[in-house]
From TrEMBL:
<feature type="region of interest" description="Disordered">
    <location>
        <begin position="1"/>
        <end position="24"/>
    </location>
</feature>
<protein>
    <submittedName>
        <fullName>Protein maestro isoform X1</fullName>
    </submittedName>
</protein>
<dbReference type="InterPro" id="IPR011989">
    <property type="entry name" value="ARM-like"/>
</dbReference>
<dbReference type="InterPro" id="IPR045206">
    <property type="entry name" value="Maestro_heat-like_prot"/>
</dbReference>
<dbReference type="InterPro" id="IPR016024">
    <property type="entry name" value="ARM-type_fold"/>
</dbReference>
<feature type="domain" description="Maestro/Maestro-like HEAT-repeats">
    <location>
        <begin position="50"/>
        <end position="245"/>
    </location>
</feature>
<dbReference type="GO" id="GO:0005737">
    <property type="term" value="C:cytoplasm"/>
</dbReference>
<dbReference type="Pfam" id="PF23227">
    <property type="entry name" value="HEAT_MROH2B_C"/>
</dbReference>
<dbReference type="InterPro" id="IPR055406">
    <property type="entry name" value="HEAT_Maestro"/>
</dbReference>
Amino acid sequence: MDQTQRGILGQPLPIPTSQPKKKRTSMMSFFSKVSWTLRFQKRESLKNVFSNLAERAQDPNAKKRHMAMRGLGTMACETPDKVRKYKKIVLDLLVHGLYDPVSAEVIHESMKTLTIILGKIQGKSLGSFFVDITLQTRTLLDDENDNLRYSAFVLFGQLAAYAGRKWKTFFTSQVKQTQDSLLIHLQDRNPQVAKACKTTFRACSPYLKERKENSFQTEEDQRNPKLCRQLSYYHPELLQFFYANKIL
């Protein structure tokens, strides 16, 4: 992740001013309590805060689910060791948020928090969560919502770093299926999304290498002509990077 991505990810979504004052106050009070409790754990059990977040994460009210996802992000930033301890439960809650059927805000906050947590745990011991996160994130790369697209590209790029041997074959197939989206969004209408896409394209580049099964093929035959044409026109420097690293 570059500095721009880190900066935007670190910025919380603004609380809409159209919300009733009572609701806005309630949300701000909740986040203040989470942050305060994480700093002064001796006065209140972190377990109670975690239970509260888990309950809100599954609440029928989308705003409460959104608050829970953000609260989990606060936990990841302020008490990473505790998040590692409850890693499986936290990931389960975030994956459920990622697949939220109603709220784009819940999905967006889930992706932001997943990006933070994956960085804290270095992608270790994700198990089948890696598949669940990858599949849903890939579908969000073409979403109409700029925030969702941006966070999806950042998260997808991070997944590329943590696929490892176990998920290499699976992730390679996902990147191949995502190739058109990567090309399209290099010219995204939102410059921040386009920049995130370019960074992710580089992160995914090792998975775009073609297997040279036929040794008699020429170097030109082994290259992906569609990818080469589009990159040479729009992003010659990215094409040069691929050539230099023998990706194309």
